[in-house]
Write a structure and sequence with these properties.
single chain; alpha+beta; Beta-Lactamase; protein histidine kinase activity; nucleotide-binding; two-component regulatory system
């Protein structure tokens, strides 16, 4: 409406100017009225100047509006004088347009803050960066995972893990990769998925990073449990009848030998029967040993559900220490207990966690047997991710790197008489507590078993 009125007024001005010009030409050519011609000519000049001022004022108003749009300055308003002029109508239209832009900007800012809030609160680590490694966005989960307050370039993670940096910089669109990071008190299995897109002629790589170590351990333990159930079932089905039959035949052979001995007949036959009886006794003993072996491994699938309670960690470590104090004193092993803060409390099944620590202490004491300066450190603290951590550290011979990844596998043991169940059982107990147990070792220097809750 403002523009229509502006066009109407402009048309009227041009029409009047045209009439005035025509009048000047007519009077100049057909009359001798010099003063009248001069006055009409002055009127034409005044009309031209007025038209120029009118158009220039409109142009300056339009230019000011367009500058506001260009620089997104939507705080500017145009003063309306309420004289119902065409310029006032144009100003009203400009103010309405700016108001609409303000509403759109407010909606965009609300959407931006909403997305930022979602990104910052999501539990999966997100990093957006350019090809050169310049980081454009990280969320709180990323900061917590890598223990950083800010991240300007992917290269800053090289001290944390060179493999991680290399994989991030070379990841392709739609690619999913796994990166394993071993820390002294934790192991991370990172699943990284990357996607690439373009914004304002900039190629952006967005990666999501999730630690799937706990899920992998659960799958591994579930697989072992299924295997153990099948094996123990099949073995027991085969061994139990053999044990029963060998015991029965052994008793029958004993009766036959006693009968022959009472008659003093065929000494050579008796000797042969005794050899058979001895073989049967060996078979029976071995089958009983296998039955005991199978029953032992059934424990991996029969751990009771934890009965959670809150208890002081320091008291737990003291109890474990008291159980082994005499043995450590006899072997000259020094044990130190450290709990920070001293009031640290844990929500778990105290008896099950105590059993895990007893197993670890027993292993450490056996490893330190014969070592003149044996030391065991029991530590409890909050790790850098804020999780309760308990460590059993000894300065024994350590564990070789090629063996370290196998020690939690059922049936695997580095000891001559080991059953291979202790550490597997410990990992299963920690899994039931939604925790983890990991080992770190430097041969002939230190072995560190870490429980994280």
């Amino acid at each position: 409406m403002g523009f229509n009125r502006f066009r109407l007024i402009l048309g009227v001005r041009i029409f009047l100017l045209s009439v005035s010009l025509f009048g000047v030409m007519y009077l100049f050519l057909n009359t001798q009225l010099t003063i009248t011609v001069v006055m009409v000519a002055l009127l034409v000049i005044i009309q031209i100047v007025s038209l120029f001022i009118f158009v220039d004022k409109t142009n300056r108003l339009l230019n000011s509006f367009l500058q506001s749009i260009r620089y997104s300055d939507f705080t500017r308003t145009f003063q309306v004088e309420n004289n119902d002029s065409s310029l006032d109508q144009l100003k009203k239209t400009f103010n309405e347009v700016i108001s609409d832009f303000q509403s759109v900007r407010a909606e965009k800012e609300e959407s931006y803050h909403y997305l930022q809030t979602v990104i910052q609160h999501i539990g999966i680590a997100l990093i957006a960066f350019q090809k050169d490694g310049s980081v454009e966005l990280i969320n709180n989960a990323t900061k917590k995972l890598f223990q950083v307050r800010s991240l300007r370039n992917i290269q800053a993670l090289r001290d944390y893990s060179p493999d991680l940096v290399q994989n991030l910089l070379t990841i392709k669109h739609g690619e999913n990769i796994l990166v394993k990071i071993r820390e002294k008190d934790d192991i991370l299995q990172l699943s990284i998925y990357g996607t690439e897109f373009k914004i304002h002629n900039r190629n952006i790589i967005l990666v999501s990073i999730k630690n799937i170590q706990h899920e992998l351990e659960e799958k591994e333990m579930d697989s072992w449990q299924k295997l153990i159930r099948v094996l123990t079932h099949e073995i027991m089905n085969s061994i139990t009848p053999i044990s029963s039959l060998s015991s029965t035949v052994h008793l029958l052979m004993n009766d036959i030998i006693e009968t022959i001995d009472s008659k003093n007949e065929c000494t050579e036959e008796v000797e042969n029967l005794r050899e058979i009886q001895s073989a049967l006794a060996t078979i029976q003993k071995r089958t009983e040993g296998l039955i005991h072996f199978v029953n032992t491994y059934r424990n991996l699938t029969k751990i009771p559900n934890p009965s959670f309670s809150i208890f002081p960690v320091e008291q737990l470590l003291q109890n474990v220490y008291e159980l082994h104090r005499q043995e450590m004193t006899e072997k000259g092993i020094i044990c130190n207990i450290s709990v920070l803060p001293p009031s640290l409390e844990l929500s778990a099944d105290e008896k099950l966690i105590e059993q895990v620590l007893i197993n670890l202490m027993t292993n450490s004491i056996q490893a330190l047997t014969g070592k003149p300066d044996g030391r065991i450190n029991l530590k409890a603290f909050l790790n850098k991710r804020g999780r309760i951590t308990i460590q059993v550290i000894d300065n024994g011979p350590g564990i070789l790197p090629e063996v370290l990844d196998k020690i939690f596998i059922p049936f695997f043991s580095t000891k001559t008489n080991g059953s291979g169940i202790g550490l597997s059982l410990s990992r299963q107990i920690l899994r039931l507590h939604s925790g983890s147990i990991n080992a770190f070792s430097v041969p002939d220097t230190e072995t560190n078993f870490t429980l994280t809750f």
